[in-house]
User: Fold this.
Amino acid sequence: MDLKQLYTVEAHESGSEVQIISPVTGKKTDFFITVMGPDSKQYRAAVRAFHTALIEKADGGEVDMLVAITKGWRGLSDGKKQVAFSADSAKELYENSPFVAEQVDRFIVDRKNFTPG
Assistant:
């Protein structure tokens, strides 16, 4: 086996797109969120921050972890114009749409979503 085939950090840092399912219709939408995978340095740092917050009983739950690994999105509008990605807008989305946060959470735990193959 080629050693380089075992290296996954770069692919996980690059991220992968989650196609979001509508909570209303249950069908695929044209909204995609790009997130980093569990082997990325950013993900591992976010997990450490999450655990520290838990120990210290501070704010900084799962939503903050998802925000930390979200790189961007495409296909999201407010009915009139495209919604620009920012950490604040991602936090607002995840807090107000647990169904979307759950989809992202399920996606990131599957390493196959981040490795070409």
